[in-house]
Amino acid sequence: MTAPKKLFIKTYGCQMNVYDSERMAESLGGQGYVETQTAEEADMILLNTCHIREKAAEKVYSELGRLKALKTENPDLKIGVTGCVAQAEGEEIMRRQPAVDLVVGPQSYHRLPQMEARVRAGQTALDTDFPEEDKFETLKGRTKAARAPSAFLTVQEGCDKFCAFCVVPYTRGAEASRPVTRILDEARELVDRGVRELTLLGQNVNAYHGAGPDGAEHSLAQLIWALNDIDGLERIRFTTSHPNDMTDDLIEAHGSCDKLMPYLHLPVQSGSDHILKRMNRSHTAESYLRVIERIRAARPDILMSGDFIVGFPEETEEDFQATLDLIENVRYGYAYSFKYSTRPGTPAAERAQVDADVADARLQRIQALITRQQQEIQDTMVGRDLHVLVEKPGRNPGQMVGKSEYLHAVHIENSDAAVGDIVPVRITEAKRNSLAAIRRN
Ligand code: SAH
Ligand code: SF4
Ligand code: F3S
């Protein structure tokens, strides 16, 4: 018997890449690969890449430069680039780094086994098509126990919104939703393997419109209600949503669906209507605030999270101030802010850019505000009785770590809870990036 070949996957970017990396590992499992955690002992290395900002994309080339050296020690080593950089740059990657054997974009992952055979035969393999066949069906091959009690499940992929700064519509392609029954089957399989929390993924997840069992289109809210009936599944989340797709039924579900967690990531990007228009966001600051008001009316304790871009072309001090005002107004439990990064091929790349020092200074100001707000909201959790889904043992003896309903990391001291348990706790302290808790009975 020959020893199994070893596969090392390094994942960059968003949660969908995490989901995709797991599917690719399973698919190559069928080709005799087992996963390893070290690049040095791998026979196949895949970098599952992100193209969202320049820094993310450039990281890939420096990593490839390092990994190339491993080929001298292991002549059988094959190196592949997958994900959004693969889609955006295609064969240019092999030109820039000839040590790369394989390049495959997100819509062609189901073709990975054939591509692997090709590179094993000493050829290179490139696939950045947007094929018609059902990638998810062919990628199926879940055999292992779940890695954790919380899992991702892609329900929708791609985006038709074309925000002026964003590469996603080009790297992930047109918006497409998976059929309801396939998602329910995958969810049940995950639950059978010990998963208790599902995060439904999509670049535009609330635009979900998959075919239901009766052939009629289902909204995300209808899908969530169907998932709500699965015994053993305890928590449902979804990300990432667009403000314009927060439909009435989805807002209502936040008030009435008991498994839907009180946390919503709803990026707005800017608080200035002029900038929002130039970003092609098709909502205003006011319409965004109105949506949040309605969500809070349905679920008053919901924790809001968002994304912001600072230094978008033409952003003035006044525009930036409007963003800070919006943040003050919303009060985010979490928020992520990024300095605008010029992406080749996107409309905003052609416009007059904001001075880099000005953008840096704005990033610092927005991050200071967000950090303060996050801390204030974390502080309000002290004394509250919450439930934690236990994910792993902590660093101290007897300590277990998990997530609250609001997605805060919680350390439970002196706990006999097991991974996968959902335990009642009382929050005793708010630390910088987590909460401390004791178990209640
Ligand atoms: N699907 C997600 C977007 C994924 S990108 C959504 O629609 O929200 C995650 C975040 O990266 C975006 O919300 C945006 O804030 C940021 N981002 C996207 N393109 C960027 C760019 N060119 N420069 C800086 N940040 C960017
Ligand atoms: Fe990108 Fe999100 Fe805009 Fe789509 S909606 S273009 S994924 S930022
Ligand atoms: Fe990055 Fe692609 Fe996700 S660009 S954020 S890996 S969709």
Unreliable spans are none
Classify the fold: give the CATH topology of the largest domain. Answer: pyruvate-formate lyase- activating enzyme
Q: What is the molecular shape?
A: globular
Query: In CATH, what is the homologous superfamily of the largest domain?
Result: tm_1862 like domain
End-to-end gap:
53 Å
Mind telling me which CATH architecture of the largest domain this is? Alpha-Beta Horseshoe
Number of domains: 3
Question: Any idea of the CATH class of the largest domain?
Answer: Alpha Beta
Main beta-sheet strand count, sense and barrel state: 6 strands, parallel
Radius of gyration: 22 Å
* Secondary structure tally, helices: 15
Structure, explained:
Helices cover 34% and strands 22% of the residues. It has helices at 15-29, 54-68, 70-73, 84-89, 92-96, 112-120, 135-139, 168-171, 180-192, 220-228, 248-256, 273-278, 285-298, 317-330, 356-379; strands spanning 5-11, 33-35, 44-49, 78-83, 102-104, 125-127, 150-154, 156-157, 176-177, 197-201, 235-239, 263-265, 303-310, 334-339, 385-393, 400-403, 409-412, 422-430, 435-439. The chain has a six-stranded parallel β-sheet, with helices on both faces. The radius of gyration is 22 Å and the shape is globular. It binds S-adenosyl-L-homocysteine, iron/sulfur cluster (SF4) and FE3-S4 cluster. S-adenosyl-L-homocysteine is lined by residues 14, 52-53, 165-166, 168, 203-204, 240, 242, 267, 269, 307, 309, 338, 340-341, 343.
